[in-house]
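thread: overnight batch results

M.L. [08:02]
morning all. the overnight job finished for the chain we discussed friday. pasting input first so we're all looking at the same thing
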Amino acid sequence: MPSTYRTHLVNPRLGAYFGIFASAVVAQFLVLLILERLGISDEVLRLGVLFGPPALFVAIGVLSASTTGVDFFAAGRRVPAVCSGLVMAITAIGSTGLLAWTGAFYINGFDAWCLSSGAITGFVIMGVAIAPFVRKSGTYTVPSFLARRFHSRLLRITAASVFIVPMLLILTAELTMTLWTASLLVGLRPEFLAMGAAVVIIATVGFGGMRGVGWVCTAQAITVIIAIVTLAAMIGVVATNFPVSQLSYGPVLRAIGRLEGAQQIPITQTSALAFALAGNGFEAVTTRFASPYGSVGSLSFMFANLNVAAGIAAGPWLLPRNGTTVGVYDARKSLGWAVFFFGLIVITLSALAVFMRDYSMRDMVGRTPADLPQWFATLRDLGLATVKSDVQSLSISSFAIRRDAVLYALALASGFPLIVLYLILAGVIAAGLAAAAATTYAIATLLSEDVIGGLKWEPPSDAVRIGFARLMTVVVVLAGLTFVTVVKTDPLRLFFWAVGLTGASAFPVVLLSVWWKRLTPFGAFASILTGFGVGITATLAAQVGVLGFAPELAAGLGIIPALVMAIVISKISSIPARPVLEQVREMRIPGGETIYDRELRLLRQRQSSRRTG
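M.L. [08:03]
and the structure it wrote out:
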């Protein structure tokens, strides 16, 4: 048997495949647009949008079926950097980002950038300080990386048990937003649509694992980009005579500033620790769009950035994605692509929020409550907006829109054909399914690989490992849908809690595992448990008012104690053994065979020799 490792090659036809998919999505919506113009019923259009793209997603998931471990858990390590980066970007944004972030931009203006700038910072930290070294280790999960870094099976189980908690919060948020959007599209209750979402997610994850997640989520990300870029281009042509509205809305923003001044919206700065981002209820515009720190204080803005950055950089639902690339160099490139695509989507969302505020001020301000534009009347009938009825002339603060309905409202207010509105909803559903599928895969892999199989160093056969992972996929999907019916909390708040707990429990130990060879298993234990414990305690204390801090950001207070505990406990523990130090040294060498692949290859050789001997 050869002792050299095999170079994994990227499929040269991937560009053609995804080009065909993008053409199919565009063609589908063009056909629906023609049917709309011909007078086909609105119900048929809505059902076509609801079932059309998901049917393509299911087909890709089934065709991506995997039978080998490296295919199921690492997509064969032959995913192009651009696809890997695209999947990470859309997984980090999800439907929560598309809806809640757009609404926060519209209502809070500049202050909402604490979300997106923190995520971009997290991707940069991941690309520079974490991802290349985790990619060289080659493990399929973050707890597996920690277990092999410290030669501790108990640490593996502990880390997996802790990391599952914030990922369940992410899964609940994404499923909540996805089902709410689907119900808005077809008018059914979210509970009736849950089974369809479960089918798509199980088809995405269950058949192909990481390979299925990679290819299906790439298709879903393409759908998202087509949707929001199309809307932005159409509005840009109408409003600025330039299709790239992300670069041309400066005059619109200046006009908004003048209208805000005429409406006497004050330029204020709130207290440094204030954190009043828009919630998921009815929200009125009370601050200027371009004025900083009107609803989020300067210290809270900075701390929100750090919270989100730490959670994204060490996210156990994001970090293993780098293991699918061909090598360390491609892992670095994938993070560059992630920053690019994430930035493209966020800049587009902020531009759309500017246009929505412009529509609101031009179409609503100065009217009477009895003389509302049709698009706002539709929102009010759907329960997505409200207006004061006891005023003679509407001001900017006389009406309110649900934060998560701002993107929907913009598509209505623009006056474009209804199919454009449905295209936006299809993009939101695709983003939610992508984030939910990636998170489901991460949780299922942690359960099967690290919790069930964490007590033994030698993994079972590929068939057994894949079988357990598929079983856990079904369990996680059912658990996530159950959580959606039980947990009635703002999805954006769930996102903040998830990244805060991830940053507190995972970021210090993962970062020190790469950059500090002196870190010991006891220090890693102390870091994970301290960060998680302090994060949970601080969140509960802030929630009940004991701690004078925003509950959404309180979990991040565990980052510093976790870092300190890791250093202190490691300093009073014995120095790691030579094999551990050598593994850390090898992990920092970008070239050569992946460490885990080499260990697995040698293990299979020994097992084969024992069977033949």
